[in-house]
Specification:
Blueprint: H1 8-18, H2 27-39, H3 52-65, H4 69-82
Helix pairs in contact: 3-4
Length: 83
């Protein structure tokens, strides 16, 4: 039998599943979740020039939050676009 090597993140998900930390959802809730994920799909590329100090500051703030800086910037832009 061949064993599959899981990444750290995959092991966390597997452990949570085995510990019963996930719950089943109904068909309607599933479609709401799927629609929300689809609407947030990143399908455009943006290249901009910014001040290096601003970028450094954004990277530091993202690191404090434990997320990648590009994800952090994308979320900031999304919040401004939705406002």
């Amino acid at each position: 039998m061949r064993t599959v090597k899981l990444t750290k993140q995959e092991r966390v998900v597997e452990d949570a599943l085995l510990n019963g930390e996930y719950r089943s959802v109904g068909k309607d809730e599933f479609h709401q979740i799927a629609s929300a994920i689809a609407s947030r799909k990143k399908d455009a590329v943006l290249n901009i020039r910014i001040n290096s100090q601003d970028l450094k500051s954004l990277k530091q703030k993202a690191q404090k939050l434990g997320i990648k800086y590009q994800t952090f910037i994308s979320e900031l832009l999304h919040k401004m676009a939705e406002a």
